[in-house]
Amino acid sequence: MTARNPERYKIETLAIHAGQAPDPATGAVMTPIYQTSTFVQQGVGEHKGYEYARTGNPTRTALEACLAALEGAAHGLAFASGMAAIDTLLKVFDPGDHVLAGNDVYGGTFRLFDKQYKKYGIEFSYVETTDLEAVRAALRPNTRWVWLETPTNPRLKVADLRAIAQAAHDHDPAVRVVVDNTFATPYLQQPLALGADVVVHSTTKYLGGHSDVVGGAVLTSDPQLHARLAFLQNAAGAVPGPLDCFLVLRGIKTLAVRMERHGENGLAVAQFLADHPQVAEVIYPGLESHPQHALARRQMRNAGGMVSFFVRGGPGAARALVARTRLFALAESLGGVESLIELPAAMTHGSTQGSPLEVDAGLIRVSVGLEHKDDLIADLAQALHSL
Ligand code: P1T
Q1: How far apart are CA 364 and CA 375, in angstroms?
Q2: How confident is the model at residue 24, as a pLDDT?
Q3: Ligand 1 test: best mutation among 87, 106, 203, most atoms within 8 Å of CB?
């Protein structure tokens, strides 16, 4: 199977096969790791489609085709990290462009906007993306890009992708709506089908799925934007190595079954926390108490594996709790098979301090993994009990 007619297959099948026909040279079922920096030419410019591995590598081509098929995009590009993918997209923006971004995004994304690209004359403003009227009101005559996460990192706000894409394109058909789909993955939600123009991923997370690789990707069906991004991918060179591409490809094969279990375990953990007397508030789109619960049910296949919460006792108690879990490892990142816990204000979102995106110091974020849910709940129970 090639990625040429991916619409015939469901996402579980695409995850295993798209872009990954058996190796033509040997019949190897798994895409080989083409660990080479260059490719021999028969004569000048006469080659088999590959010249130099920054420009292209067959393992990367397979990953790019697979990711594009999963998101329903015509084109895919893989990068060395999620931030490299975001950085490459930002290089397309021109001085004077206005970017309307959500007011809750990954700290590294905000840092790159605020500390690097602002100085190139790109305007950034931040809006509450759960409020469609606020989004409409924040669109400016020079708005060229709308930047969304949903669910957001770390407050897990859910944005109505169809409504926002419609509003942005009604405002100006040239506006491009970018969705960072890292938290949901294409298994839970497909932004392009809802009207977005570009999807960005940190493949480090659920796509890789095993906390053993750092990577990123940009997917779009816009041929001009893709051509510009492909130029930048080669010209600037933030490309992933072939082993990293292989690891992401291998992780993707089990994406569907993993995301089903992440959602099941995420809901179980969220329900346990919601009923616990030491817990002040739980944020999880799969709980009826979540302000966008109905939208999440419509837009997502399940509510995923990320849960945020506050304990009674404020930031001091939160710090104590994250040091006391045994199965939930205290670490940045998310989306792997193992459960992680962290304090965003002090860790992943330190760069938002003092900004309108500042994260509450007491917010705790967990990435609920694939261990048995009873063991995960028992771990949180013992940590909460010792507060
Ligand atoms: O870490 P990297 O692969 O460069 O991806 C950056 C990134 C982009 N977008 C989102 C939504 C992300 O969550 C991240 C990385 N986030 C973490 C490391 C974290 O713990 O939140």
Answers
A1: 19
A2: 87
A3: 106
Protein residue whose Cα sits closest to atom 1 of ligand 1: 82
Q: What is the mean pLDDT of the chain?
A: 97
| The CA-based dihedral angle spanning residues 77, 82, 86, 88, taken in that order and rounded to the nearest 10 degrees | -50
What pLDDT, in 10s, does the model give residues 201-225?
999 999 999 999 999 999 999 999 9
Tell whether ligand 1 has an atom less than 6 A from the beta carbon of residue 80.
no
Question: pLDDT by residue (tens digit) across 44-71?
Answer: 999 999 999 999 999 999 999 999 999 9
Q: Is 180 in the pocket of ligand 1 (CB under 6 A)?
A: yes
Q: Is the CB of 213 under 6 A from ligand 1?
A: no
pTM of the model: 0.98
Can you tell me which atom of ligand 1 is nearest the CA of 367? 20
Choose the residue to mutate in 88, 182, 200 for probing ligand 1, maximizing ligand atoms within 8 Å of C-beta.
182
Contact 254, 219 (CB under 8 A): no
- Per the CB < 8 A criterion, the answer to whether 279 and 314 are in contact is no
Dist. CA 201–CA 215, nearest whole Å = 8
**Which residue's CA is the nearest one to ligand 1's atom 13?**
106
Residue 7 has what pLDDT? 61
Which residues have C-beta within 8 Å of that of residue 360, sequence separation ≥ 6? Answer: 310, 345
Atom of ligand 1 nearest to the CA of 154: 21
pLDDT of 3 > 50? The answer is: no
- Model confidence at 8, pLDDT cuts 50, 70, 90, reads confident
For the chain, domains (ranges, CATH) are 11-252 (3.40.640.10), 256-385 (3.90.1150.10)
Enter the DSSP assignment of 240.
Answer: P
What gap in Å lies between CA 322 and CA 334, rounded to an integer? Answer: 15
For the stretch 286-340, pLDDT in tens is: 999 999 999 999 999 999 999 999 999 999 999 999 999 999 999 999 999 999 9
Enzyme catalytic residues: 54, 106, 180, 205
